[in-house]
Amino acid sequence: MRSLIDILDLTVEELDDLIATACDIIADPDKYAERCKRRKLATLFYEPSTRTRLSFEAAMLELGGSVIGFSEATSSSAAKGESVADTAKVISCYADIIAMRHPKEGAALVAANNASIPVINAGDGGHCHPTQTLADLLTIYREKGRFDHLTVGLCGDLKFGRTVHSLINALSRYEGVKFVLISPEELKLPSYVKNEALKKKGLEYLQTTSLEQAMPLMDILYMTRIQQERFADMDEYLRLKDSYVLTPEKLKTAKPDMCILHPLPRVNEISVKVDDDPRACYFKQVLNGKYMRMALILKLLEEAKA
Known about the structure:
The protein is 37% helix and 14% strand. It is α/β, with parallel strands linked by helices. The protein is globular and about 55 Å long.
């Protein structure tokens, strides 16, 4: 049974196919309106979510399917002590595919190993978030027309940012990609991501604490929030939370066609004054996430039938 736990579970060719399917859905949505008729998606969200949960639900509904599930752990039998493994076995009796978010790294893999239906990782702790990366990739493709030979800046929480880890892993497979890693010293990219995705592949990267220094270099700027929920020490969070704030003034040295992304939600890290800048693509990113999740649901359900 095929599941999606990590973005590296998909080959470059499969990513290209998903993007092609998403673009076809955008061009001709009526063609896909009944593709998942009588199929059910279970959304198992043990952590709060707006975009990811609702975009999965919208994706399944627009494919003609239906949705069951829960939006917080306290409304499920997890509150009674039920394990992720048992929950996966139970939900397999009711649904055709699962999308799961969980605060613990590896929880989605446990679910996939125990379910008899496909499982999609909708974020597991600070590990990875592959379907956000699919949204990111479709946005980059629609804005830039390619993935190779781009300079990609990632700014903010690079230590706990699962969206950052997944995007680096995905883009590191394309030729000529360079990375600019912008963060406070305390929130630098983990060494295991740096070693596996960058050093081992001989990719060029720059580490800096200065967004202003990096600004003229970038084709893509991926802003992230400092995530309060990942900090054990509230004082450290309060000290770091406003490390980077993107404003129109800071964008004056950026390339005129730079693409600004953000996985959302934002707190203070992008001024609302940036929203009207033509380079701001983060709300396009939200919509692109729905299309890519539609494409992924179709792929995994069709493979499950085969």
